[in-house]
Design goal:
CATH topology of the largest domain in chain B: Rossmann fold
CATH architecture of the largest domain in chain B: 3-Layer(aba) Sandwich
Strand order of the largest sheet of chain B: 6-7-8-3-9-10
Number of strands of chain B: 10
Helix content of chain B: 25-40%
Largest sheet of chain B: 6 strands, mixed
Number of strands of chain A: 2
Number of helices of chain B: 12
Number of domains of chain A: 2
Largest interface: B-C, 41 and 40 residues
Helix content of chain A: over 70%
Oligomer: heterotrimer
Order of helices and strands of chain B: EEEHHEEHEHHHEHEHEEHHHH
Low-confidence stretches of chain A: none
Mean pLDDT of chain B: 88
Mean pLDDT of chain A: 84
Strand order of the largest sheet of chain A: 1-2
Structural class of chain A: mainly alpha
Shape of chain A: flat
Low-confidence stretches of chain B: 284-288
Chains: A mainly alpha, B alpha/beta, C alpha/beta
Radius of gyration of chain A: 24 Å
Radius of gyration of chain B: 21 Å
Strand content of chain B: 15-25%
Shape of chain B: globular
Number of domains of chain B: 2
Distance between the termini of chain A: 45 Å
Amino acid sequence: MQKNFIQQLHPMTKFFFALFLSAAVLIIPGHLFSFLGFAILLLIAVAAGVVKEFLGTVMKALLFLLVIIFLMQLFFYPGDHVLGQWGIFKWTEEGLNYGLTLSSRILAMGSAFILFFRLTEVRDFVKSLEDAGLPPMGAYVVLSTLQIIPEMRRHANTIMDAQKTRGVETEGSLLIRAKAFIPTLTPLILSSISSTEERAITLESRAFSAPTKKTSLHKLTKSTADRILPFVYITILVGLILWRILT
Amino acid sequence: MKSIIEMKNVSYRYPVSDDQIIKNASFTIEKGKFTAVVGNNGSGKTTLCNIIRGFIPHFYKGELEGEVIVDGKNIVDYQLGQLGEKIGYVFQNPFIQVSGVKDTVFDEVAYGLENLGVEENEIRDRVKEILKLVKIEHLQDKHPMGLSGGQRQRVALASIIVMNPDILVIDEPTSQLDPIGTEHVFDIIRLMKERGKTIILVEHKMDLIAEYADNLIVLHEGELVLQGPTREVFADPRFGEYNIQYPHVTEVALHLQKNSVKLNYVPILDEELPESIGWTSLEESAHD
Amino acid sequence: MTELHLKNVSFAYPDGTKALEDLTLNVPSGQRLAIVGQNGAGKTTAVKLMNGLLKPTEGTVHVGDWNTKDHTTAQVSRKVGYVFQNPDDQIFHNDVESEVKFGPKNMGFDPERVEKLTDWAMKLCGISNVADENPYNLPYSVRKFVTIASVLAMDSDVIILDEPTAGQDRVGLDLLGKLLDELEKKEKTVITITHDMEFVTEYFSRIVVMANRKIIADDDSEHIFYNPAILEESMLKPPAVAKMANLLGLEKGILTKSQLLSVIKERELTRGR
């Protein structure tokens, strides 16, 4: 992706920001700050030019969850100040407050990490983990899993086609489709296992286990901003904690 | 003749198996020469490649007997990672030979060099050179997972060749490819031969082997039954006993010989046919 | 017996990519047909339409008197069997025999018929001796025969083989040849996709050449492999025998080794050797 200033920041800087924001919304009571936090995230998304995808993912991943959580707290959180009633459901002031607090916090925290992944390429994130000490095999497992998943979907479709031609019905009632499960899943798993071996050989033939220290075409650099920002986060957090304790 | 690989009385049994899949094989691979390994399926060709490349015994367990010497040193004394620089390995399935961790063909080809700790600028230069050589420059920004089988096989070859190994072990690279894909792969192999690499190739396409291979090793049920210069092995009457495919022209010529047509020598290339049966095309056109 | 009729068939993927344009093909019952052409020409798409795996976006495909649009793939597979190129996309049993039995059992045949078909298919494919083996312990080329057997055991009238020759050695190719003869005796229709031109000329007389999503030729081997225009457009290479015949200055039309041999012998005799 074409990178602007925000995207060019080191992955760790962005990751720490997500952590920082999550910690902040947990420290500060009530829901106002959490919603504010979300607004800040939105602004950052706009500045980085990823706001559409960001909102899209937030909707898909969080919206349903948040609504359920909010309603659960609204109706079932213990409280005395009843605000209203509808049939057997009654909602209280305590429930309302808690519901808002909880869901706004989850919104802020969840969105913080969603934004992080929107702003960071996985390859850069894994590279930063490697720089921080993640063993090469760990990095390999993370990265290859990401590429494998769409591959497996494609492969599963091919297998399903092959089993259809052997008389396995895949269209129809749930029972019929359940019967197609084993003939589809088993070859997928078996070939994944045997391809793991071949994949290991491929890695070997690319000198994966060579005793030398590895180099990298795509290096991560830390700019001044990357060096300063983590301290800014910590300073603000310490400040917030102190304020909380003292008031 | 300088030998670069030697096998002495090598036998091997896979961990789960009762039978030895390679029985008492001894041979030498000449440095800088192109040796083809032929034999019917199940004869042990891939196992032999695994042994040469050091995957047996370092990767696959099981019982390995005998000595395998690569460039003067016994293979058990090498660390697996060290062999990667000396011996390149390409195998049949193009879909498993992508690393699975790179987003572009350029990065994919560079991967081996990164693992070897080569300096970044050198990596870039070498990758550019190889992409040009293998004629896949137009693919360099594409995602490896989006390529066809033939394209992937070329990328796999490029990824190995860029590491500049002296020895290339290539196991049935064209079985899953169409004729044009096959041609592209053999163009690359020919180039490597011209550059003086030692090449060991397992293939069923005998016509291509007749054209490119200097030496031939024949496996039958795990035993090394024939070896020597390509021409000699094909002409050896014992070759026919193993029901292995001949080059098409050789098959035709031998059948003619069986049917009382005089054969001056056993042809292995199409162009040799007229001369081998004592015809020249000028002579025959008069009969049309 | 089942005839195949593809009428003005076109196929495009959901994202709009065209894979076939205006194909018309009729395959009478019991015929042997080879489909050749470069990868990407549309061969696999065409055969997938024949067994209902894909439904045409334009035109109709009739298998016997069934329109494939009116039936699921599993149903059409009763009439048209399809052996996939990669056996590892199909095999999921621990032993060869169960794998082969799977298809006929799904067809709902009675146990005796299942037994009989399984034995016949395994014998034909040369895998009776490994009936109890785990397919993954067998070489890749033998696994290919396991999948062929598992489709043959379904006893469909039409059988489609997708690249059965890839990676096969001499023994495997001979076995395939015998298999084709046996299927012909049983009056099955066989359609094969292959890149092996020697195999094609040896065992098939009707050849359909595809290029650029269309059929560019549908004829017998003589007229295809000696036609420079077709060879150029399809980027096919004629079988080795054609090159040899040319080098010897022989007449056009020679494609099989046996033809070459008899012509050479004739010449030898006339030259008084």
